[in-house]
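[step 3/7] inverse_fold.run input=structure_tokens len=267
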């Protein structure tokens, strides 16, 4: 019976097949670890399980994913709103500092030898696309008039991202002799190899990945006044809560927003 409920819940989610497998395992793991029937589970049991996972030295990311999945299942089938109060992120979880800056990215682009590599770096930095989305871009997806590119995300969901005029001009030059087809003929590992090489060219410390560019874009977008719901659409998140959870330090100051609006309303 519970397995059928899990299947029904998973079918309602707009997530990748890989995430579905992780979510299914998380809920089944909770049931196995605690022996608690899912319909009897409450906030207290979820917190106990989370604490046990942390004490058992599970990686913070794993704990976060497990709890997120369990909360989603309980809310879908039982409407257990109380579990929403549970902080998903482990106490020790902190968003890593992003080592990229506009100056570093520009330096990376200046030192590349191939226009293709420069385009990859610029698009990752300006659009925050995931590597799979980058590789699905076709030349026909580029709208030069409106400076936007159609992105095909997970589950085939479409969205538009925008680029600056300088990047658009470089992109137009990069594809000028091509009539259509894929923008980049690379693999995930190929993109990572290019990033590694560009990073080494500027004497970068540590490792970076396409997700580093995604975090770089998001943090700068919010720091410069971008709205969290606009960022949600740019990143392609189905739920606003996903975006908020990824960047909790950028939650809006509701009182300040209230005072700002009321000052104009009652002015």
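[step 3/7] decode complete -> sequence:
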């Amino acid at each position: 019976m519970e397995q059928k409920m899990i299947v029904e819940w998973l079918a309602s989610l707009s997530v990748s097949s890989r995430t579905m497998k992780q979510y299914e395992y998380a809920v089944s793991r909770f049931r196995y670890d605690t022996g608690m029937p899912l319909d009897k589970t409450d906030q207290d049991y979820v917190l106990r399980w989370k604490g046990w996972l942390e004490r058992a030295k599970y990686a913070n990311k794993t704990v976060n994913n497990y709890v997120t999945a369990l909360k989603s299942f309980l809310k879908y089938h039982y409407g257990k709103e109380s579990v929403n109060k549970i902080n998903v992120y482990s106490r020790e979880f902190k968003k890593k500092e992003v080592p990229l800056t506009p100056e570093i990215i520009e330096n990376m682009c200046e030192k590349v030898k191939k226009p293709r590599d420069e385009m990859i770096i610029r698009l990752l930095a300006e659009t925050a696309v995931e590597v799979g989305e980058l590789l699905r871009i076709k030349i026909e997806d580029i709208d030069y008039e409106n400076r936007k590119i159609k992105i095909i995300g997970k589950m085939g969901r479409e969205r538009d991202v925008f680029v600056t005029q300088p990047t658009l001009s470089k992109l137009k030059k990069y594809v000028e002799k091509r009539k259509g087809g894929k923008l980049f003929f690379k693999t995930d590992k190929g993109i990572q190899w290019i990033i590694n090489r560009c990073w080494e060219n500027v004497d970068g410390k540590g490792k970076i990945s396409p997700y580093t560019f995604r975090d770089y874009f998001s943090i700068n977008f919010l720091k410069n006044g971008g709205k969290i719901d606009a960022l949600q659409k740019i990143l392609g998140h189905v739920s606003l809560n996903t975006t908020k959870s990824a960047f909790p330090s950028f939650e809006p100051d509701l009182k300040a927003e209230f005072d700002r609006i009321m000052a104009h309303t009652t002015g």
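[step 4/7] annotate
The chain has two domains: 2-85, 102-249.
The radius of gyration is 22 Å.
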